[in-house]
Amino acid sequence: MLSIRLDKNLEQSLAEIADATNTTKTALMKEAITRYIDDKTDYILAARALKDVQTTFPLETVLQEFKDELQN
């Protein structure tokens, strides 16, 4: 169980959307929290994957590797 306090404006907006979509405020909050957690999880996993594969090469190595292409 989770209890959350919202400021007056946010609670009013939530109530208006709940009424307009014929759903409950609780259902909207569950959806919003689920999407937020999914997005953050995706970001964290992507950042970790990028960190794991991030490789740098010295300029001299790159120039040597592609010297033929650079001369044409």
List keywords for this structure.
single chain; 72 residues; mainly alpha; rod-shaped
Give a quick summary of the entry:
This protein is an all-alpha fold and 72 residues long. The chain has one domain.
Molecular structure report:
The structure is a single chain. With 72 residues, this protein is mainly α. The chain has one domain (8-71). The protein contains 4 helices and no strands. It has helices at 8-21, 25-53, 59-65, 67-71. The protein is rod-shaped. The model has no long low-confidence stretch (mean pLDDT 92).
- Biggest sheet record: none
Task: Give, in order, the helices and strands.
Answer: HHHH
What is the 3D shape? rod-shaped
SS summary, helix count: 4
Domain count: 1
Q: Helical amount among residues, as a percent range?
A: over 70%
Helices and strands: which structural class?
mainly alpha
Question: Quick one: how many beta strands?
Answer: 0
Taking pLDDT < 50 over at least 5 consecutive residues as the criterion, the unreliable ranges are: none
Cα radius of gyration in angstroms:
25 Å
Mean pLDDT: 92
Distance between the termini: 67 Å
Bin the strand percentage: under 5%
